[in-house]
Amino acid sequence: MTRKTSTENFPAYPEPDDDGTDEPISETSGLVAPHLTLGRHLLEAAMTPAQLRRFRYSPGLSVLIEAPTPAWVAPLRSAAAGMADWQHIEARDGTARHARRPTEGENELARVLGAGHRLVAVSHAPERLLPPSVVAGADMRIQTGHPTAAVIRKAIRDATGTWPRPGSNKLGARLDYFDLVSAIRVGSGARSCLDRLARATAGMTVVAQFQTHVPPLEELCGYGEAGQWARRLVDDVNAWRRGEIIDFSTIDRQVVFAGPPGTGKTTLVASIAKSSGLPLITTSVAKWFIDGTGYLDSVMKQAEAIFMRAADASPAILFLDEIDAIPNRATTSSRNADFWAPIVGFILQFLDGISSGGPSSSNLIIIGATNFGDALDPALVRPGRLSRVIKILPPDEKAIPGILRQHLGKDLEGVDLDHIGGIALGATGAVIAGWAKGARRRARVARRPMEIGDLMAEILAPDNRSPGAIWRCAVHEASHATVAHMTGAIVVQSISILSNPTQGGRMIGAYPDGEVTRTRADIESMIVTALAGRAGEIVFGMEASTGSYGDLTTATNLAASVHASFGMGEGLLQRRPADKAASLLDEDANFRRLIEMALKAFSAQAVEIITRYRDLVEILANRLVKDRQIDGAAFRQLVDGYERKLVQGPATRNGGPCHG
Fold it and tell me: How many domains in the chain?
């Protein structure tokens, strides 16, 4: 039997007078640490006097205490043991391995109840961690909630001997048990405790580094559909605050942002938090492993703790970074499926609670981010969970000057940056931010204000390639653009041989306006365009180089998807999703031969087009060597000039009239 602890171990202090003065206790009174008092104060605050009497003295009583978080399970267990006599106390916070199985120990607990003994069970997730018979058979269910300001003030009084001055009802809001225990210290002054609590609470509100450096949402540039969604969200949150939207769950508040690294997904989420004034709680699967032991029970506990912290802070934003780390169950190997199944299931259950307005919702906004939107488990992004995936691509020509202006601040005020959009097309937000930092450093080293030349020196970094390498790159990209235009595969937006750490040049294009779906002919034109860079090097008397590595990957994936994914080949069977179609090449020799023959034929088409329009490729390549970049308008002018010469004069050595 667990013995009751005398109330003499906990000094009883009178409530402070209404005048708000700090009233010190007598020097003979003892001070008690918060880890010994918080649980008791929280438990007592959750019961009426009649419930408290029943809790302490009713025979054969079965009590279920629902803790606010896992951290509160142990202190509430200790408090229950100190406040009354119990034949059995069961506490489960998800850390012990047996706690993953709710039925563990059910026979023993049933015998305790059947014998008419007093039993108390404590858990933050009773339905998931406790035996069903204990949950269903409880005579009292005490949901403590998080400690109120009054409970925290009592703990401060116990530890310091002084009643803190009356203050905000939000004292200690969103702080967990260990946060409170760390801030309330024996022998410290009440004011010092309040200051520590205030600092801890502020640290939980919004990630600190975002608060000062991230711009508000209305100042962001270049986010397209994602930016529109974000602005609608903030408008809806403000309407909810004004009472114009009654039910928070009706707000479109669950989404995944997908895009290449450096496109500003994290910045957008932080800006949403700043503009909406909502707390931002950031987590990731990697963090669940790092903060725990890496075993299944530990990972589950870390995930649950952060989800509950977000719900407790609501209305708030929970940001799930690198969400693609949650594996797609359709592609997870059988060896790993048993480990990941309960984790994925728990996450889906939590998201279901959000969408249904259940106990886990608490006015919570859920935003995920990934570099690989196509790799997500379909169940994760179906309507009602994360709902949809919005792509964030590198900014377009119009958005780049605005992003630059944002990062430059007061530097280069009044200087027109519009011409930089075309030069910098293809750069991500992170690269653009790096240019501004580099230009600022150049000016600082020169001990003068920033000049436009500082910025251009960063954008047009010195090119250490040999003339031959530059010419090869120019021919390669000009060939891509020429074939894209002549086949109508895409509309050329820019061509560049400005190098960066990952590529020596790029041709950027877009689908023709109004085109949404692709036919087999469209995809084959894209394959020919992808192989054009390699073909151009060969036509101009150079050997094929490693610069075609990415092009071959694109062409192979597209060719494989025609036959294995889109039903455009010999059969209608979808053998693989489009992003996995090329995996069949290692498994099926006949499929491998089919794709190899197709790629050779497409490469021959690319060689034929470049041979026919060699003069145009050479015009474009020479301009690239000179200017390093050609925007969409300049490309069309060069093509129009070439076509006029074909019409006005004799045919060139390589071709007839243009059919593009």
Answer: 4
